[in-house]
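Entry for the shared binder. Reason: the reviewer on the internal report wants the predicted structure included alongside the sequence.
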Amino acid sequence: MSKIIALVNQKGGVGKTTTAVNLAAYFARAGRRILLVDIDPQGNASAGVGANNETEQPHVYHVLLEPNSIKEVIQKTSYENLSILPAQADLAGAAVELVGAENREYKLKEALEKVSADYDYILIDCPPSLGLLTVNGLTAAQQVLIPIQAEYYALEGLGQLMNTINLIQEHLNNSLDILGALVTMYDSRNRLANAVVQELKNHFPNKLFMTMIPRNVRLAEAPSYGQPVMVYDAASRGAEAYRLLAEEVLKILESQTTYGQTI
């Protein structure tokens, strides 16, 4: 059975999708079988791995309405061991259609249970909101990874996010756990950024990843080419940071398991 990790932050522009795409790519390179699930109507994770984005193609919207269709909707990417459950803009309509559905919070969980044995890890890129799509992601996941920008407003809304996670744990998914918080867009020369990091250490004792993702132009450019940064520019600071993060996260996830392959 795969481990399912939801990447969540209701604030946009914090590097959530960048993290989902690049962790998925590095995990896959290390020989893990990966499914990247895009439940953000912007579809940026899908584009970031070069997924087929033709409007008539079925995507995660159809899976939420009909969970049994998941195997037909998953696409293989051009990267070994990496598959994608893609999203398109009309996914936004699913939230409306699901409002009256029975067990509406469990649709993604129900679908992923049908393919869980096929993957080592499933990474869910949630939208920048705390609506029904994100609730589906958190209900389906076992663990949460929270990317947080190293800026002044980073902690604003964090309480609301933690409250949502607590509510999910209480009412929908009592096995949900926080894998860790990740500092993104970090500039070590910036005193404010360092102050934010210190504050996050207080918020997430023993849950803040040691690896921090720097501000990096190559990271920002890579998605427009439909490539993870390890393909677009493997020598960049951004690529090296995500490689180290992937090693750190895998070490935590697999502390009782030895795969014998390195990233």
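Summary line for the report: The chain has twelve helices and seven strands.
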